[in-house]
Design brief:
alpha/beta; TIM Barrel; eight-stranded parallel β-sheet; three-stranded antiparallel β-sheet; 13 helices; 17% strand; binds cobalt (II) ion
Length: 334
């Protein structure tokens, strides 16, 4: 085990300690603020409603590095908390939020460039402004972009997003797709169902949209990773492929390539919490396309990033790929 590399964790979330009062600045509500009510703890408030209680490791690089050292994590790939995306705002305001978050992210990465990498955010609701913000990524030292599984309930095959994906591919930026704004949330408020049922479905929705909409087909150099092991996609791929086979009139209308052909072209993170599911994922996407993702610092994530991977009955060579090399391929393209 000692010969295994320290993981690159491609799925961790960061929030700035101090968030501007966007509601005041823009003149309407719906934004997240942090109420620091005791040392090292804060309430994430969406207007006056409690969204989540969080601790210092959400914003404090030193606290994060302390955890990384304790858990043997080599690199954290940082991205914002999806609730900060602000896709619902007018584009100009969304661009201002993205600019603030990306500046902060770049600062944290620059503070510890060997331990942190950054995935920025974009005002996806406005293609021109998203492209303009992308223009800053190289200067900011950000390696890629995190986007939601849908953009204001529009799917990722929507033509408005294609120029953004095209530009990411041209610039060699990695794309991380994270589930959020879960479908059916209003109909299943109890038992944490939006997180347990809606999130995996959102990841499948995103993947199916990228495949059937022909985004992967048209942009083979775009390096895409999907959170939570691709959600429900891997477990339902047989059904998805069968649907493509029996009803091409419904499914194959924009892309004639079968969905299973794309296995091995996109990355997934390892966050599935079950060895059989992880083994199946390896069988499906291949040993080059799974990377460690922990969802740090949240409780639905993996407490010690890479633990499940290290416990698998795989060779050390395969584990080394999943712990480190596959993430490098995804982030840097080599
Ligand atoms: Co996450």
């Amino acid at each position: 085990m000692n010969s295994l590399p320290a993981p690159i964790d491609i799925h961790t979330h960061l929030i700035p300690e101090h968030i501007p009062h966007f509601a005041e600045r823009f003149g309407y509500g719906g934004f997240v603020r942090l109420e620091h009510h005791c040392p090292g703890c804060a309430r994430m408030m969406k207007d006056d409603v409690l969204f989540r209680e969080i601790e210092a490791n959400n914003w404090d690089p030193a606290a994060r590095l302390h955890d990384c050292d304790r858990h043997g994590v080599g690199v954290q790939v940082l991205s914002t908390v999806p609730v900060m995306f602000s896709y619902w705002t007018p584009g100009r305001d969304g661009a201002a939020v993205a600019e603030f978050l990306n500046d902060h992210l770049a600062e944290v990465v620059a503070g510890n460039p060997t331990r942190f990498e950054g995935l920025g955010t974009l005002p996806m609701q406005d293609t021109d402004l998203a492209l303009r913000e992308l223009d800053r990524f190289e200067r900011l030292g950000l390696r890629g972009v995190q986007i939601g599984s849908n953009i204001n309930q529009r799917n990722l095959d929507d033509p408005a997003f294609f120029p953004i994906f095209e530009e990411m591919a041209r610039r060699g930026l990695a794309l991380f797709v994270h589930p959020w704004e879960m479908m059916g949330s209003d109909d299943m408020k109890r038992y944490w169902l939006p997180w347990l049922v809606g999130m995996p479905a959102e990841s499948s929705r995103a993947l199916c949209s990228l495949i059937f909409g022909g985004v992967f087909e048209r942009l083979p150099s775009l390096r895409v990773a999907i959170a939570h092991g691709g959600g429900s996609f891997p477990a339902t791929l047989g059904r998805i492929q069968h649907g493509f086979d029996v009803r091409p009139d419904l499914v194959a209308i924009d892309n004639a390539v079968p969905p299973t052909e794309y296995l091995g072209t996109f990355w997934v993170d390892s966050l599935v919490h079950d060895p059989h599911a992880l083994d199946n994922l390896l069988r499906l996407v291949g040993e080059d396309k799974i990377a460690v993702g922990s969802d740090y610092p949240y409780p639905l994530g993996e407490a010690v990033p890479g633990d499940l991977v290290r416990s698998m009955p795989w060779s050390d060579a395969v584990k080394a790929k999943v712990l480190r090399h596959n993430a490098e391929q995804w982030l840097y393209g080599s």
